[in-house]
Amino acid sequence: MYLEVIIITCLYFIRSYYPNLENINITRQDVIGNKEVQISCTEVLTLLCSHLIDIVRESSKSLACYLADLFSRLKLYKVLLHCVLSSVCYPKYNNGHLSNQVLKFNEGFGGSKDRLPRHSESLQKQLIRLLLFLIILEYEVNNHKGEKSDTADIPPETNDLKYINGKAIPQQPLFLTIISRALEIQPQSRHTHSHWTALVACSLPYQGAALTKVVTTALKQICHNIEELSHCYSATASTGFPADYGITQIEALTVLCHFCLLDTSTVFNQTQLTSGGASSSQIFSNLTHLFLSSPPQTEQSKERID
Description:
The protein is mostly helical and about 300 residues long.
């Protein structure tokens, strides 16, 4: 009962925004105060999920079943995925819709064209941490229930922004859209890329059947970002990249490739390990599956390719 109340309350506050109404005098301090409340609620949920992970690992199946039912009723995964998506809706995706106007109004204090406002960036970083713990918690709950998430292919015409019931977080098209948008080379997002690549890297053991799509989505964007970084060495290039940007992106690239090559429990490995180690055919198969398996394209990626 108390657990349900805490989760519901935090979810309500995380989704709280000031409306953009002319007859209401909303100050900068009001918006910043609301951001601080959102950050605090995100921290509470992160701490809660981290403790639940340890408890589930040491408990019986009944607790896992209870948590799975509770999270389903509260729509925890769905709500937080949409909250994370709203945090990466940069001006490129803004249009005349009311929801985008509200988001823009609540992000419009203290920012610049090269970086998000300090409180908005802090909130996004906290949401990234929470998303990682949610992925791990969902994985542990499903394992203790003795049930595997639905691994059936998602129809290609499925909306990339729609949450699909019965699918684990890494298998959601919405999750792939979030990763793709978050890693795009927008000036305001460059300072958070290291946190997003850390999320992908830390969640690799819990990706399950979605590992191929998640890794290829991240790798394509990371490689594109490194290519864009090379243009900074020209005389007319923008210098809006963090000082360690290249290092963090190459480190992420290394971790993703190494995990996919060495992990023996994923679909990348098509041959059995021999007593002498991995064979050359296995390594070639791993590389083939890693770089030739293409993830579903979002609308933004289609536009970029065209």
